[in-house]
Design goal:
The chain is α+β, with helices and mostly antiparallel strands and 150 residues long. 21% of the residues lie in helices and 38% in strands. It is globular and about 40 Å long.
Length: 150
């Protein structure tokens, strides 16, 4: 349950790839860094670490809370030295087969009200990159990797 001083960011995205492929871009470091960050330490099991270096200064993540292969991933989320501390919110990703691809649904809970706009813009930016990569394209260098986190 979200308290009155916290918000939820919700996003839905169709990706032209099967859930098994999309899932791997959240659980395999070499695939994750193609759309998010420059390096990652991922241990995709409940209690395992999810630590992503956005650039040489900023680190985001938390730990995996639930991992159901090819259909559901839940992890804590935040950034070191930020208004949304490391692991202080929860991200739920569900993957449903749809047509020839996947319907990805994100629910990011526990976000302080003042961080909602920044987190929503961040997910929009990242999911655009994710769709390009999963569908076989190259999104190029991430311009946000050179910015400071909010």
């Amino acid at each position: 349950m979200t308290s009155p001083d916290q918000e939820v960011v919700a996003r839905d995205l169709y990706i032209a790839a099967r859930p098994k492929i999309v899932f791997s871009f959240f659980t395999e470091p070499e695939k994750l860094v193609r759309w998010l960050g420059i390096r990652a330490t991922l241990d995709a099991r409940p209690g395992g670490i999810c630590r992503i270096h956005i650039n040489e200064r900023e680190i985001v993540g938390g730990q995996y809370l639930e991992v159901v292969p090819y259909s559901r991933i839940v992890f804590s989320w935040g950034a070191e030295d930020s208004p949304l501390p490391f692991g202080s919110s929860t991200v739920e990703i569900t993957l449903q087969p749809e047509a020839e691809g996947t319907r990805l649904s994100l629910r990011h809970r526990g976000i302080p009200v003042e961080q909602r706009t920044f987190q929503a813009a961040g997910w929009d930016h990242l999911f655009a990159r994710l769709a390009i990569v999963v569908e076989g394209g190259d999104p190029g260098p991430d311009p946000w990797a050179t910015r400071s986190m909010g």
